[in-house]
Amino acid sequence: MQEFTRDGLVFDVSDTGPDRGDADPGDTDPGDTDTSDASPAAREVVLLLHGWPQDRHAWSRVTPPLLEAGLRVVAFDQRGYSPRARPAGRRAYRMQELVADVLALIDELGTARVHLVGHDWGGSVAWAFAERHPERLRSLTVLSTPHHDAIAWALRHADQARRSWYLAAFQLPAVPEVVLRRRLATVLRRSGLPEPDVQRYAARFREPGAASASLAWYRAIPLRRKGSDKPAARRISTPTAYLWGRDDPALGRAAAERTRDHVAADYTFTELDAGHWLPETHPDEVAAAILERRRTLPQ
Question: Does domain 3-295 have CATH number 3.40.50.1820?
Answer without folding.
Answer: yes
